[in-house]
Amino acid sequence: MDPLAYPVSEVFKPAFAYNRGAKPQPLARLEDLIRESDAYVMLSPEYNHSMSPALADLLNHFPSSAFSFKPSLIATYSSGQWGGTRAAVNMRSFLAELGCLPVSAMVHFPSADQVFAQNGELLEGQDPARWERYAGRGVEQLYWWAAAASHQRQAIDPFGCRRPSRAPPRSGMRQRPNNSSKPTPLLGAA
């Protein structure tokens, strides 16, 4: 989704702040798409060493529960030599807080104005196979984590997990089983 297709409103009102049935249709459709997705590719230019303000604004319209327990791949670009790596560092913490943890491989496009045309196609003289190989590691990691996370979400509802009703033991000892069918987490003192 292109953040520029969702114009910024004068007053910020996230999708989850609307009364039931009053949510604007474009936001409702996008929230459904976000919730239905198993993974995300977050593509951003670098602005002042940070991610796109339009992308941050759009993502802030949705609750973290829409993104949670799903992986993301960070892809950045700039006209400079680093291809938006500083924006990617900023995006890592932003996406982690949303719950869509980024995979370790990132994709950066330096000198993007010399690589891509205005429509996003590679310019003549660029080697498509080279760029596919370069991006392949991140894409492969994303697919692997998306499949693993999807499988785990089907096996155990991550939103149904409950915290233990009592404080964790201070000694680092294993908590006693609670005779439920859920696995008992190992709790310890830090």
Strand order of the largest sheet: 1-2-3
Distance from N terminus to C terminus (CA atoms, Å) equals 41 Å
Total number of β-strand segments?
A: 3
Determine the mean pLDDT: 85
Low-confidence stretches: 169-190
Strand % is 5-15%
Number of helices: 5
Oligomer: single chain
> How large is the radius of gyration?
20 Å
Which sheet architecture does the biggest sheet show?
3 strands, parallel
Shape: globular
- What sequence of helices (H) and strands (E) makes up the elements? HEHHEHEH
Helix content range: 25-40%
Structural class by sheet pairing and helices:
mainly alpha
Question: What are its keywords?
Answer:
globular, 190 residues, mainly alpha, three-stranded parallel beta sheet, 5 helices, 3 strands
